Amino acid sequence: MRRHGHPGTRDAAMTTQPHQNGSVENGQTDGGSSADRACGLIDLIARRVSCRAYKPDPVPEPHLHQILEAARLAPSACNQQPWRFAVVRDPVVRRRIVEEGFLPGAKMTWALDAPVHVVIGMERSFVTHRLAPTVSGVDYPWVDIGIAGEHLVLAATELGLGTCWIGWIKPRAIAGIVGWPGSVRPVVVITIGYARDPGSGVPPRSRRKDLDQLVRWI
Ligand SMILES: Cc1cc2nc3c(=O)[nH]c(=O)nc-3n(C[C@H](O)[C@H](O)[C@H](O)COP(=O)(O)O)c2cc1C
After folding, report:
1. Contacts of 200 (CB under 8 A, 6+ apart)
2. Exposure check for the chain: N or C terminus, fewer CB within 10 A?
3. What's the pLDDT band for 32 if we cut at 50, 70, 90?
4. Computed over its alpha carbons, how large is the radius of gyration of the chain?
5. How far away, in angstroms, is 38 Cα from ligand 1 center?
6. Is the CB of 204 inside a 6 Å radius of any atom of ligand 1?
7. Any idea where the domains of the chain sit in the sequence?
8. pLDDT tens for residues 82-99?
9. Mean pLDDT, all residues of the chain
10. By CB neighbour count within 10 A (0-12 exposed, 13-18 middle, 19+ buried), where does 19 fall?
11. H/E element holding 191?
12. Distance, CA 146 to ligand 1 centroid (Å)?
């Protein structure tokens, strides 16, 4: 995001001089070298944790615009951009999402305290929902929604906000609550707000499988 420079400054960042200590210094005022920016992004990714306790403080509207912009810029199969967003700040509607739109069995009343719920829906398209999967067997729009959702979450993290993905939902009920037509299927709700205990989450790095278990180097 902004703090780490604009993509348009990438070329300037390449004109860098190595330091004696091996680091790279960039004479430009573009927010740092590409190595610095990469570290910034990895640090941001490592800082994100699911937040399940929120302060009531509202999220400034410009922050919401930045967060949605990050999601809007996500890549998608055939550039279909199947994502749709419902930004729910109204407390009555948020309560309906929690009470009528979440599946039973998981205690998620904490979501009532999050001042914003973003429902991400999937607009079904002929090309990527029907045609392409019959050839490749890959259901692309689900991938697209995942990318857009994580863009959104990382942008929120960058702005000092807590988030949590909620997939344990009743899509039809939520579509009715936010007034989407039948062609848009809710996929997840993402809660957004200021964390009650910032930094209290267990860092993802310590809770993840080792790369040895996940990667096959060829
Ligand atoms: C697609 C998806 C659905 C999720 N659904 C829920 C959910 O319904 N309720 C919940 O409390 N957390 C949900 N989570 C959060 C995960 O439990 C959490 O990301 C995971 O345990 C790793 O913890 P971390 O996010 O703190 O790193 C979901 C996450 C994803 C990506």
Report:
1. none
2. C
3. low
4. 20
5. 25
6. yes
7. 2-47, 61-193
8. 999 999 999 999 999 999
9. 86
10. exposed
11. strand 184-193
12. 12
